[in-house]
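To illustrate the input format used throughout this study, we show a single complete record. The first block contains the structure-token representation of the backbone; no residue identities are included at this stage. The design step must infer an amino acid for every position from geometry alone.
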């Protein structure tokens, strides 16, 4: 059983190289039990929900969130809050796994810091209200990300596409979060990520593609797809010196714990 804890299916489909039916068929063929469709802006909300509703029998779940690089005025944040409130009361509420991806990105700086911080804090409040996991994006802002989470007293969720060494991993683990690694952990020069993934225990670990981004070796340079996560699984299993099946089982258990029953 294979899990992809972070996918942007809407972005994959924009390339029009594969249809929705072909992508879902590939998930089945590659023994993928669950894949999580991630929202990053207001226009994703309805699409992500409807995609999950159409394909929940194939293990598709979704999130609602605004990326730190996306516009997040009071209008967008209210839309997110109202949409989450509505969906949590609806028939398909269990398909909504969490809130995000949200957080801070001081590398790209597509939005001012004040807007990013307010957006992040607001989304933490939404997650707290519904007791949902946060899907957190943190780039060049780990210290401030952790401080905001501590100030808001919320420690439930996934640190997506973890970027840091074992010391940073310990800080995040100590708060209670699960760490998810993307395809860049397979890159030869990713020494800090290698240090971190070696440190993280199996019961706190997830893997993701972040597709269509961060294609793992040996297919780096091509557009990423969920089925390519098999390369990341093999790399991490070898690196941590654990049987591939044990890694798959551990990650599946970690992900399933986040799903409301």
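Output of the design step:
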């Amino acid at each position: 059983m294979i899990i992809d804890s972070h996918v942007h299916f809407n972005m994959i489909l924009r390339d029009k190289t594969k249809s929705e039916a072909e992508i879902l068929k590939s998930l089945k063929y590659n023994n993928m039990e669950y894949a999580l469709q991630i929202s990053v802006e207001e226009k994703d909300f309805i699409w992500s929900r409807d995609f999950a509703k159409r394909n929940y029998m194939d293990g598709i779940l979704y999130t609602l969130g605004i990326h730190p690089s996306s516009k997040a005025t009071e209008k967008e944040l209210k839309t997110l809050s109202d949409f989450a409130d509505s969906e949590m009361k609806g028939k398909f509420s269990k398909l909504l796994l969490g809130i995000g991806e949200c957080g801070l990105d001081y590398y790209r700086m597509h939005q001012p810091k004040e807007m990013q911080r307010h957006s992040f804090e607001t989304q933490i409040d939404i997650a707290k209200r519904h007791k949902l996991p946060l899907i957190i994006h943190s780039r060049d802002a780990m210290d401030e990300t952790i401080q905001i989470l501590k100030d808001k007293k919320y420690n439930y969720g996934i640190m997506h596409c973890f970027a840091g060494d074992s010391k940073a991993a310990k800080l995040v683990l100590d708060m209670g979060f699960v760490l998810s690694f993307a395809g860049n952990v397979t890159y030869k020069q990713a020494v800090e990520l290698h240090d971190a993934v070696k440190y993280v225990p199996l019961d706190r670990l997830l893997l993701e593609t972040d597709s269509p981004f961060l294609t793992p070796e040996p297919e780096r340079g091509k557009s990423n797809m969920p089925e390519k996560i098999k390369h990341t699984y093999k790399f991490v299993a070898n690196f941590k010196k654990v049987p591939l099946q044990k890694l798959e089982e551990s990650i599946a258990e970690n992900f399933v714990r986040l799903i409301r029953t």
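Structural context for interpreting the output: DSSP finds ten helices and eight strands in the chain. The mean pLDDT is 97.
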